[in-house]
Amino acid sequence: MNRTKDSSTSLRIAIQKSGRLTDKTVSLLQGIGIDFDNYKRNLMVKTRNFDVELLLLRDDDIPEYVQDGVCDLGFVGANVTYESRADVKVLRGLNYGKCRLSLAAPKNGNIKTPQDFDGKTVATSYPNLTRSFFEEQGVNIKIVGISGAVEIAPQLEVADAIVDLVSTGGTLRANGLEELDTILESETQLIQTNMELSPGKKQLIEKFLVRIDGYQQAKKSRYIMLNAPESAVEDIKAIIPSMRSPTVVPLAEDDMVAIHTVIPLNEFWVVMEELKATGASDIVMLPIESMIL
Ligand code: PRT
Ligand code: ZN
What is the pTM of this model? Predict the structure, then answer.
């Protein structure tokens, strides 16, 4: 079946109106050059310089809006998309809004493994993911659907244990619960409708993805500049895990050069220490706005 719902040429993108994902999603969109304002007051905003309309929604509604083609793309947590079972394509994992959907039970109780859940009552806002997990384990549970404050359910004796999102684990600890196993590792994803899109929209999505990839790469990288004796250049090249060969520029001072290159952020401190040992000095690290490879 060739389902089509493609009345306009602008890409329509769903983002969370107000919540944990909003600021980072808005920063990402602005970081890839999509210009808009008033997103806090309106449900739909037009962008100025890219043919995109943003629809501001509750996160729970996003997978379905994308599935039905009301929106072409959406930014939403994997936890929400997988729980919804919406028929959508995942285009990118976006490395923010990270959390995990975990099993937890009272610390001083006798539930310690998924098998110990057999015959127990489990409170969760994620009944579908919870049911599938326990079915796969061959464990019989009763689910109590709760939409908020799931972690107090055991204290209220509404349930024996819970399945909920965890990021630092602070909420579980504060409620005397122990994390036992993980059902899903989640992050914000860019999802796309499976409805047939016009060639114009497909092209826009391609452009959009190139920008997102550049933005993501830039976030993980730093531009570094340093001065060094010319005699150390070969040693320095061996240390720097550069994308390509670094730029080496002679300095006015005799036998000194400036070296510029890009390195992965997570290698900066180790690389910096090794560089200093070669005689490098004046090492400067700068964030990068975007990077098109
Ligand atoms: O109003 P709307 O429906 O749009 O928003 P919401 O209230 O349903 O969701 P929101 O804004 O709270 O979260 C949006 C998304 O952020 C989630 O769907 C996840 O993908 C992601 N995310 C990342 C989290 C967390 N981390 C998180 N820690 N969502 C919720 N939590 C909650 C969790 O439910 C628990 O109550 O934080 C508490 C645990 O946190 P820690 O740090 O104490 O472990
Ligand atoms: Zn929600």
Answer: 0.90
